[in-house]
Amino acid sequence: YSGLQNRRSWFDSVRPCHYIMEEKKFVDVLEQKITRLGGRWFFDYIEARHAVFALAWAAFYVSFLLLSLPFPDAALVMWLRYMGLMLCMVFVLRNFFEDRLLVLAMGLTLIADAILAIDSVSVWGVVVFGLVQSVHFLRLEELRTKSLVWHILAVLMIAGAGFCLSSPVIFVVGAIYAFLLLSNVFLGWQWYQKTGAKAARNGAFGMSLLLCCDFCVMLSFLSFSGVLPAVIFGVANYLAWAFYFPSQVLIANSSKIVL
User: Do the Cβ atoms of 46 and 255 come closer than 8 Å?
Assistant: First the structure.
């Protein structure tokens, strides 16, 4: 914690004092305007000093949701989505640099999304997302040895069952990913129930939204494979991103390091 304080003090020291004062004034005015417009609830999830980031996230979110209705496969839509996710990474690096596990998880998320943007059914993309959930598990569980051992055994059992049943690799990897995500949803809500902290609430809701996203991804995959009607494919893809982007924003605001 002291290291984080020193880092932030150094960050402020390299900026002109008048810039810092103007930034604070701008944030205060912005908070007042959002509150007057009935957006007080907004600050239950996002710190007032992060309002500029939040407005940028909102701009990306609304833009790609509207554009993806008439142009679902447009390159611009893809870039708006990815730039919004990159903003999450910038936000974490700027505000929670000392939370190395959160930084690692967000960085791996960018890599996984880049892989799946190139090939939407890539096994490697799902593998990297599994690594993301593993990092979040370590972050939420705080490296408790007994729990780690049980989860490693569970992952090995899932992999072993998939091998014995000769299941496709993507199904086995997907099952491991689903297990880790469900564990993180449970841990997120457990953290929130214990502390009631804003970061814990963001983590719990973020993981829950990610679960909703992945349910839509599953429907999309089954539709793509011909198991479900083709009409579900487009709707499921749209809803997946409607859930996914806010999940990443909330997770980016779920650091256990208190500033």
Answer: no
Give the span between the Cα atoms of 94 and 72, in whole angstroms.
32
Closest CA to 8 of 103, 132, 95: 95
State the Cα–Cα distance between residues 41 and 207, nearest whole angstrom.
Answer: 20
176-215, pLDDT tens digit by residue?
999 999 999 999 999 999 999 989 999 999 999 999 999 9
R_g (Cα) of the chain, nearest Å: 20
d(CA 54, CA 107): 19
Residue of higher predicted confidence among 87 and 53: 87
Cβ partners under 8 Å of residue 146, min gap 6: none
pLDDT of amino acid 49: 63
Per-residue pLDDT, 35 = 63
Nearest CA-CA partner of 132 in 92, 87, 88, 177: 177
Tens digit of each residue's pLDDT (9 = 90 or more) over 111-157: 999 999 998 889 999 999 999 999 999 998 876 666 778 888 888 89
Q: What is the residue whose two structure tokens read 């679902």?
A: 72
| Residue/partner pairs of 128-136 with CB below 8 Å, 24 or more apart | 129/177, 130/173, 130/176, 130/177, 130/180, 132/105, 132/108, 133/177, 133/180, 133/181, 133/183, 133/184, 134/180, 135/101, 135/104, 135/105, 135/108, 136/101, 136/105, 136/180, 136/184, 136/207, 136/251
Exposed (0-12), middle (13-18) or buried (19+): which is 229, by Cβ within 10 Å? exposed
